[in-house]
Amino acid sequence: MKVWIIFLLCLAGKALAAPQQEPFEEEFELIEDHEAIAEEEAVVDEVIEETPVGSNPVQVETGEFDEAIEVAEEVPADNPCLNHHCKKGKVCELDDSNNPICVCQDPSTCPASNGEFEHVCGTDNKTYDSSCHFFATKCTLEGTKKGHKLHLDYIGPCKYIAPCLDNELNEFPLRMRDWLKNVLVTLYERDEDNNLLTEKQKLRVKKIFENEKRLQAGDHTLELLAHDFEKNYNMYIFPVHWQFGQLDQHPIDGYLSHTELAPLRAPLIPMEHCTTRFFTQCDADNDKYIALDEWASCFGIKEQDVDKDLII
């Protein structure tokens, strides 16, 4: 499955709300550090282990955050668990009949973390030594109200996140739209092996890349970003749709769940304090899911320009 090389590209950025900071631009540098992204195993693992992954830019590995994604364990070939898959937080064991079953992993069996960079913060405002410790703990709470509400909130140890003011919330999409556009252009330039973008996506990005009016990547003021969006609005329509398509993976149903948003949210929250409020606001009908039209509206895309074909 394709992953978000783009988001890894951006994951190192500073704060969206502050004009002098360029969080999304630094994520491009992250891409160079992590180079590619390989498949559904986790933003956290991707960022923490710097494991090369596959091709989907903005989606930094959904696996680590996707509690429904199943992963195979490395076991001897003669072990029935070899081809038995368990989701994050669980491991395969054999029952009395020698049949493979998935059971919650004991958090104490998780590898010791090598530093704070491996820590993650849960929505319970508790710092876990690693994503392994987090998911193992969550598994033990399955079936409980606490377990249902517990999610991986962001990468890094828990810390104070300043409240997002209204004016800062309005600035967030300005910077993110520009970042998404630049990420696609970067992918287009680097896609020598044709595994970062599909041919159809390349044709769409090519139009943006070759447009002489395109605002080049840089440290721009919010005023300039707002002006460019107004004057070159059409250049932002596809990048916004593309990002939605990269996140909408489990399942591909036209809606983004908390889990599907995690690869985008988790790396940003420590740096961009308006991240949570922004995505909460995007869920206009408060049904816990963000539909394509809600997503597009959050980024200023007009209703008549919302097109499901652009996320394929």
UniProtKB/TrEMBL annotation:
GO molecular function, one term: calcium ion binding
Listed Pfam families: FOLN (PF09289), Kazal_1 (PF00050), SPARC_Ca_bdg (PF10591)
Domain Kazal-like, residue spans: 103-160
Cross-referenced InterPro entries: EF-hand-dom_pair (IPR011992), EF_Hand_1_Ca_BS (IPR018247), Fol_N (IPR003645), Follistatin/Osteonectin_EGF (IPR015369), Kazal_dom (IPR002350), Kazal_dom_sf (IPR036058), Osteonectin_CS (IPR001999), SPARC/Testican_Ca-bd-dom (IPR019577)
GO-annotated cellular components: basement membrane; extracellular space
Keywords assigned: Basement membrane, Calcium, Copper, Disulfide bond, Extracellular matrix, Glycoprotein, Metal-binding, Secreted, Signal
Signal peptide: 1-17
UniProt entry tagged with the keyword Calcium: yes
Entry-linked SUPFAM superfamilies: EF-hand (SSF47473), EGF/Laminin (SSF57196), Kazal-type serine protease inhibitors (SSF100895)
Keyword Secreted applies: yes
Cysteine disulfide partners in this protein: 81-92, 86-102, 104-139, 110-132, 121-158, 164-274, 282-298
Compartments, record wording: Secreted, Extracellular space, Extracellular matrix, Basement membrane
Gene3D superfamilies: 3.30.60.30, EF-hand
PANTHER family: BM-40, SPARC OSTEONECTIN
Recorded family membership: Belongs to the SPARC family.
Biological role stated in the UniProt entry: Appears to regulate cell growth through interactions with the extracellular matrix and cytokines. Binds calcium and copper, several types of collagen, albumin, thrombospondin, PDGF and cell membranes. There are two calcium binding sites; an acidic domain that binds 5 to 8 Ca(2+) with a low affinity and an EF-hand loop that binds a Ca(2+) ion with a high affinity.
Stated name of the protein: SPARC
